[in-house]
Amino acid sequence: MRTDHGLPVVRLGLIGAGRIGTMHAGNIARHVPGAELAAVADTRPEAAQKLAARYDTAPVTVDELLKDPELDGVVITSLAIAHSELITRAAEAGKAVWCEKPASLTLPELDRAIAATDRADVPFQVGFNRRFAKDFAAARRTIADGGIGTPRLMRSITRDPGRPGGLRYADRIPQWTIFRETLIHDFDTLLWLNPGARPVEVYTRADALVAPEYKENGLLDTAVVMITFDNGAIATAEANFSSYYGYDVRGEVFGSEGMVVAGQLASSALEHYNASGVHQQTLRSDEEMFHDAYVQELTDFVDVVRTNGVPPVTGQDARNALQVALAAMASYEEHRPVRI
Ligand SMILES: NC(=O)c1ccc[n+]([C@@H]2O[C@H](COP(=O)([O-])OP(=O)(O)OC[C@H]3O[C@@H](n4cnc5c(N)ncnc54)[C@H](O)[C@@H]3O)[C@@H](O)[C@H]2O)c1
């Protein structure tokens, strides 16, 4: 099958029909040019069925999906604990692989997954969507072009949306989520915004300030991680699981000759002035804030599959960010700076 522009259609199978898988499925079916959502699998068959029905596609098991010779690529949006094994299996089945972050929870499993994609010679791309947001991408270009001189101070912020009444589904959030699933975005962003530099030391302070009652189960919801780079830059990554005003993601790099700031909290430029002040509508969720970036990362993946090109975010990028996350966890546990 060919697109209107004569390019071959890229047929994708999605594994993991949860919250973010549902969003990516919609993007593949409706927004990613030249892509087809050809199959949906989940260990919960009812979830696969429901999502597949929405886009008039086939609900299948993971085994069936990986064996389907018609699929060009696999999009993995399952729970993180299953990622590395699914990457490995998809590569062994000869499929191009796109996987949500984190690509793995441990370095040995990630190394096995990367080795499998190398052996099979299939493209492997990881879902660090912030890199595809226009302002973050422009920040990176400006830094790489020397527009702010040498980075000296860097910040990356993630505040997940919250509502009064504590942390929702706290009992379902795995230990270390704040480092390996939330701040992993910030670690990747900081490494990417400091091109050519290497992180050398990590120091963490973290606590359970939103849901203190879960601290003894190991659930942390507030964290600051300081990262020192070998070019001298000092960075902080911070996260909290309960932002009442909506999703809040920002980045800032201050250098020897200037500064870049990225991150847009308002849903539009509208300012509403009334007796109680000046108001703006904020973006409530990641799906709203990063819609274009989520579409772009899969648009680029489709292009990589079609051209057998180099993915814009690689397994090595996932490894670099995971290494910082693991060092941040060790620093928290051992109350000391950890060398990388
Ligand atoms: N890039 C982003 O902005 C972003 C945002 C949210 C979530 N995520 C990531 O996406 C992943 C999924 O998050 P979610 O919020 O959609 O979780 P979720 O719990 O809503 O969905 C996960 C789905 O995976 C399925 N599943 C689990 N193990 C499986 C397996 N072995 N094979 C097939 N299906 C399996 C579950 O049944 C569930 O339907 C996580 O890694 C998360 O960190 C990324």
UniProtKB/TrEMBL annotation:
Keywords: Oxidoreductase. GO terms for molecular function: nucleotide binding; oxidoreductase activity. The keyword 4Fe-4S does not apply. It comes from the Bacteria. SUPFAM superfamilies: Glyceraldehyde-3-phosphate dehydrogenase-like, C-terminal domain, NAD(P)-binding Rossmann-fold domains. Residues 11-128 form the Gfo/Idh/MocA-like oxidoreductase N-terminal domain. Residues 136-260 form the GFO/IDH/MocA-like oxidoreductase domain. Gene3D superfamilies: Dihydrodipicolinate Reductase, domain 2, NAD(P)-binding Rossmann-like Domain. The keyword Translocase does not apply. Belongs to the Gfo/Idh/MocA family. PANTHER family: BINDING ROSSMANN FOLD OXIDOREDUCTASE, PUTATIVE (AFU_ORTHOLOGUE AFUA_2G10240)-RELATED (PTHR42840:SF3), NAD(P)-BINDING ROSSMANN-FOLD SUPERFAMILY PROTEIN-RELATED (PTHR42840). This is Myo-inositol 2-dehydrogenase/D-chiro-inositol 1-dehydrogenase.
